[in-house]
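Structure first, sequence second, as always.
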């Protein structure tokens, strides 16, 4: 059986834990610490695709002082990652833009941006959010509902397409 590692990253209250919990077949494994300055949390979940593939989902801390862990601990054997943005929190857009840009530069794996809370009437469409975050058309923004398993599966499927596209591009270039 193959195991794939997918990282779920985003700013505080973006919905990382809800994303993993919606799809995980095990209870969400969470380690959380509240300090005077920050709330720090790590999350883990598992999703069995079929008899041959299990996905391990890791939710990362969202504070800047733990960015080193993204490069050191998470990049090994990484299949891809999902950047979660809570569309109902426009004040978090600058931090979301910083995270997307950081991962585009430092993590060579395929990724998608999952746009949470699409039903918020004040939220932006994925295309509007792409413009606000100054991202190119090549970055896939996928709307989803954080607590909806089928919606989370759609995001993971979008990530798989990004992975397949990258593999096909490499094969064609070889």
């Amino acid at each position: 059986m193959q195991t794939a590692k997918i990282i779920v990253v985003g700013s505080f209250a973006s919905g990382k834990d809800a994303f993993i919990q919606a799809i995980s077949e095990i209870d969400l494994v969470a380690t959380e610490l509240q300090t005077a300055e920050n709330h720090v949390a790590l999350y883990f979940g598992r999703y069995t695709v079929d008899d041959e593939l299990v996905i391990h989902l890791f939710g990362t801390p969202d504070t800047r002082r733990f960015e080193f862990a993204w490069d050191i601990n998470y990049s090994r054997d990484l299949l891809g990652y999902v950047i979660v943005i809570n569309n109902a929190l426009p004040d978090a857009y600058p931090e979301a833009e910083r995270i997307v840009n950081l991962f585009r530069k430092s993590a060579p794996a395929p990724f998608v941006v999952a746009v949470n809370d699409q039903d918020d009437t004040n939220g932006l469409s994925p295309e509007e959010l792409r413009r606000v975050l100054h991202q190119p058309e090549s970055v896939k923004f996928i709307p989803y509902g954080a607590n909806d398993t089928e919606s989370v599966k759609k995001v993971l499927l979008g990530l798989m397409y990004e992975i397949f596209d990258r593999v096909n591009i490499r094969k064609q270039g070889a």
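Margin note: The two ends are 28 Å apart (CA to CA).
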